[in-house]
User: What shape does this take?
Amino acid sequence: MNRTESILTRLRSQANPLNIAGMARYGISTNNTLGVSMPVLRALAKEIGRDHELALSLWSSGIHEACILAGLIDDPRLVTETQMEQWVADFDSWDVCDQVCSNLFDATPFAYEKAVTWACRKEEFVKRAGFVLMAALSVHDKKAGDDVFEPFFALIVRESTDGRNFVKKAVNWAVRQIGKRNALLNARAIAVAEEVQMVDAPSARWIAADALRELTGEKVQSRLKGRKKSPPY
Assistant: This one.
């Protein structure tokens, strides 16, 4: 038994039909899904460590949890643009999209470019991936200056009219996360959310109302008080 089959056998041994039912209630795809929990997947990823070739092999299995595991163990330094395009085209569930984007794709040299190009695509989970990357980069790229987030704002406004659930939630996530990065980006994100609020679309109004509620709230404002720019890491 090769290493890929060994890992897949371990995943199958952790299959839980009750978890699958719960996942379905949260809009997670049950296609080729085992119901293995994220704590189990994270523990397995920690045991395996970084392994690019194994990640590619696990992804090719098409098993839901194996794809999430692939994103956890792959080495972002070895990920190519071709691989990213192949994987994003395979996304069929928001959890796989979010896990791969925030655990792997956001650490690649192509992350900012893909955030913009994917946000302009029509496919639901590809477009979601673009906005999830924006959110993930705003949290994980500690060295980035404020200017790198500016191109995202026009896309947030433009795509706020997309009423598909998994898209509008990702657009909302992006503007909220960028706006929590520091005081200057908070003010900019609030202004963008107010612009979105004026867009004549139900999805835009929801995105704006939810984002403004958090970005102007006491919790966020208290944390950001006194921070005028990105920290000089």
